[in-house]
Write a structure and sequence with these properties.
It is a single chain. This protein is α+β, with helices and mostly antiparallel strands and 168 residues long. Helices cover 29% and strands 32% of the residues. It has helices at 2-9, 54-71, 131-147, 155-160, and strands at 22-31, 34-42, 77-87, 91-100, 104-113, 121-122, 166-167. Strand 4 and strand 5 form a beta hairpin. The longest helix is centred in the middle third of the chain and has 18 residues, at 54-71.
Length: 168
């Protein structure tokens, strides 16, 4: 245990100071039998710059449809979820999440190189999300509890409950 503690302190890649990033709810898509709230995150703090280009949006939409068709069309799916498209420092990240069996969240993560931001491939490392994506995930978890894990589940209220645009 003592050795592991020192290994964490002597990280090869030291964390950088946290800077909030732009987060925006872009749209809600109805595809492959699901309603998916779509969020964009961008490392560029300039609000005048679009979060996503039209080409990236089109590629993400096709990828979301394909992933849902392949992975999420079973009787346990509620047909509701969200995706996050994050223009980060290392890549364009796509996290697609959908709800099954009450309160279980499923996810597929994909990425595209910054030089080819429409070429998404599955991420095979055991990653979950970064600190900026976790802000969206936390909001979506709370929205799910508020609107769906109640005596009278309200999918419309869930879909309308989006994280306000801002720097997180």
């Amino acid at each position: 245990m003592h050795y592991r503690h020192h290994a964490l302190i002597d990280m090869t890649l030291a964390p950088e100071p946290y800077l909030p990033r732009r987060v925006v709810h872009l749209d809600t898509w109805h595809t492959a039998g699901h309603a998916i709230k779509t969020y964009g995150i961008h490392r560029d703090p300039n609000w005048a710059t679009p979060i996503l280009s039209d080409a990236i949006m089109a590629s993400v939409r096709t990828t979301v449809q394909n992933v849902l068709t392949e992975n999420a069309c079973d009787e346990r799916s509620h047909g509701l979820g969200f995706c996050i498209v994050h223009i980060g420092e290392e890549a364009v990240w796509l996290l697609l999440d959908w709800w099954i069996s009450g309160g279980i969240l499923c996810q597929r993560m994909l990425s595209a190189p910054l030089a080819q931001p429409t070429q998404f491939t599955p991420v095979s490392t055991p990653a979950l999300a970064c600190v900026w994506e976790l802000a969206v995930i936390a909001h979506e978890r709370d929205a799910w509890v508020r609107h769906m894990l109640s005596a009278r589940p309200d999918w419309s209220a869930y879909l309308n409950d989006v994280l306000p645009a801002g720097a997180y």
